């Protein structure tokens, strides 16, 4: 054995470093090549030492690859078929399965030859998958994975999978104990999940007892979600990542059809738990999977988001410490989708501490140096600013004020070149015929307005909620800055000092109906943000020619029944502004008449 291993090692070195010389010596004599290959193949089934078997397989594969002749492949396939047929035990077939898997890995087209011209070998593979030895099952699954990675193999073995392999494979994956078998099963599953047909079979497979070694294994009609959930529970991060990747591969075919099975299996709960790690590959896979699950309403109605939001926020905190902008963006995208799609009737943040942690995460991402991350962060802020997300008393007004100030100032600080780089495709039609500076400023302007309007409406909604007026837990007879009144004054102040001047500067150069609509709507909402300041604010707008500006905008964009939404917004703004001015005039006149009457009475 030692001498054989020495010779094999020397032959391996020669094929690795002097392959051309070896081929020039062997290739002219086909009989010699066939004899050498036959001898090496025979040794595979006469040697029991595992290291020698691995060396034999590597040398045999390298030799066939370097000789570049199909006749040697057919020779090995023929010998393999004979060996599998005469094998007295399945254990003796392990070297053959391993060799075929390595050949399929090394030689393009080998899998096609095997399934087309030697398809009876596949029957032996199925027998190997039912044999109670995980090394044999692992070798069989690896070879199956190579066969199903080929378009020809997928087509030829479609019926084989549907009629014979599916149930056996699911049982094998579910009962796998060794890491090698688990990994090879997942590799095969990954190839199968590329086909919509195979996904449909796997997700609708009804377990038949004759197909399983254990009749009690995985009750129900959809064992795949349960099998993948079982892998999430292994605490092995590589298996967890592969499991979540396979879930995403299923869901991407049809979230509507397949997501309910995963949700009913409580898979989201364990996906959220997997986020409490530092493995970037695992976190990315889980983000992708959860993102697909957010498309199904059942994901929210089963309260998985309420359970998992803390894990997500903590995950984002950890991810921000990593130098991986794509992971930051994916996490923020998931956070935004959850914030946006969460039903109003199901409160997402039941813990005020988690809500404040979420604000802190958004603050950090808004101040991120990577602009693509900032874009996703600003979208997340907009989705976060919903009354039902923030209405758990006491409302964190101070933290919100810091967040909004950071967002608006970051938007203002963006240079034109940076802003135009991220310009949305949907805005392209608005840019025709404008100067470069106008085109650069438009996204920044829309950004200002959308978030200003969002926050202003939030403040107005809080005015109708007694519990949101101020911090109910403030010490009696003490003043608190954490109140709706202070927050609303901040909004009016920052809109007056930052947003309105910037938008007006833009409108001096170019006018966009979309910008105008949001701008006028924001101004209209500001009247009610601080009711005590509405008369003063109205006077300032009137003295700054906003009545004339609004009438000009209506004349320009709202004639011939065009832009009805803009027309309604402008009319509503003018009505509110004029009523406020009239009310202020009436109060002043009434006050003056009262004073005049008092002087008359005194005289």
Task: Summarize the structure in words.
This protein is an all-alpha fold. About 75% of the residues lie in helices and about 0% in strands.
**Beta-strand content:** under 5%
Seen as an oligomer or otherwise, the chain set is single chain
Shape: elongated
Name the structural class: mainly alpha
Question: What is the C-alpha radius of gyration, as a whole number of Å?
Answer: 35 Å
The biggest sheet amounts to:
none
Mean pLDDT, as a whole number? Answer: 84
Q: Determine the fraction of residues in helical runs and give it as a percent range.
A: over 70%
Number of strands: 0
Number of helices: 32
User: In angstroms, what separates the terminal alpha carbons?
Assistant: 132 Å
Low-confidence stretches: 206-220, 415-442
Question: How do the helices and strands line up, and which of them pair or pack?
Answer:
Layout: H1 2-17, H2 19-26, H3 30-44, H4 50-67, H5 70-86, H6 94-106, H7 110-117, H8 121-130, H9 134-148, H10 151-156, H11 158-175, H12 179-192, H13 196-203, H14 223-232, H15 237-251, H16 255-264, H17 267-274, H18 280-293, H19 298-301, H20 304-319, H21 325-341, H22 352-366, H23 371-384, H24 387-390, H25 397-413, H26 416-421, H27 436-462, H28 484-507, H29 513-529, H30 534-543, H31 546-557, H32 564-602
Helix pairs in contact: 1-4, 3-4, 3-5, 4-6, 6-9, 8-9, 9-12, 12-15, 14-15, 14-17, 15-18, 17-18, 17-20, 18-21, 20-21, 20-22, 21-23, 22-23, 22-25, 25-27, 25-28, 27-28, 27-29, 29-30, 29-32, 30-32, 31-32
